Amino acid sequence: MANADLRYVYDVVEKDRRDAVAHEAYVRQEGYQEGEKKGMYKIIANMIAKGLLFQDISDMTGLSLAEVRTFAAQKQAS
How many Å apart are CA 65 and CA 71, to the nearest integer? Predict the structure, then answer.
């Protein structure tokens, strides 16, 4: 009986540890992606300021033309 209780406690602790590791990995990945997105938007803002065509920005960044136009409109409004 004691072995079964110890095994249960071990399983609970191990599950908590694995959950914490998985959560930390998820948070790091989300933070990385958010930072990457902010960096790309900064570059796009510079491209727009330099007068590049929206189509060229779209081609270079992989964003759709509509996304580039929306970004430019939001930047202009702020």
Answer: 10
Do 72 and 48 touch, CB atoms closer than 8 A?
Answer: yes
pLDDT < 50: residue spans in the chain: none
Report how far residue 53's alpha carbon sits from residue 40's, in angstroms, rounded to the nearest whole number. Answer: 16
- Can you tell me the distance from the alpha carbon of 61 to that of 40, in angstroms, rounded to the nearest whole number? 8
pLDDT attached to residue 1 = 61
Q: Which of 42, 40, 43 is nearest to 32 (CA)?
A: 40
Give the residue extent of every domain in the chain: 2-77
Structure tokens at 48: 């727009």
Whole-model pTM: value is 0.59
pLDDT of residue 11: 94
Give CA–CA dist 29/42, Å, rounded: 20
Please name the residue that has the structure tokens 């580039």.
68
